[in-house]
Design a protein that fits this description.
Layout lengths: L2 E5 L2 E3 L5 E8 L7 E7 L6 E7 L4 E4 L7 E6 L4 E6 L8 E8 L12 E2 L3 E5 L2
Parallel strand pairs: 2-11
Antiparallel strand pairs: 1-3, 3-8, 4-5, 4-9, 5-6, 7-8, 9-10, 9-11
Length: 123
């Protein structure tokens, strides 16, 4: 059974940084896709960054390009999302998700989801 547990959310001032972690169990990263998504109440969940471990290709939403970086520690089965220069509009609940096949799309229809971690951006 695939399990994902997010951590690292919190309150940060505009311009600050956070690193989210997604601990994954029940699958090996090879030939899988892991993604980070976020959702604001009343809005649809959006894909912000995904990594396809079959070829290490990555995707970033335009809104986070140059500020967010997805990375992984395969030995620990952890995927990270480093978020820099955070803005008020980045405040949301962040979720990681896993798909058990290589994907070229980063849309919120993955098969396995974590419970989420909240990011607040405020001075």
């Amino acid at each position: 059974q695939v399990q994902l547990v997010e951590s690292g959310g919190g309150l940060v001032e505009p311009g600050g940084s956070l690193r989210l972690s997604c601990a994954v169990s029940g699958l090996l990263f090879s030939d899988h896709t892991i993604g980070w998504f976020r959702q604001v109440p009343g809005k649809e969940r959006e894909g912000i960054s995904c990594i396809n471990f079959s070829d290490d290709s990555t995707y970033y939403a335009d809104s986070v390009k140059g500020r967010f970086t997805i990375s992984s520690n395969s030995a620990k089965n952890i995927v990270y999302l480093q978020m820099n220069d955070l803005k008020a509009e980045d405040a949301a609940d962040y979720y990681c998700a896993a798909e058990d096949y290589p994907r070229s799309t980063c849309t919120p229809d993955f098969g396995n989801w974590g419970q989420g971690t909240r990011v607040a951006v405020s001075s």
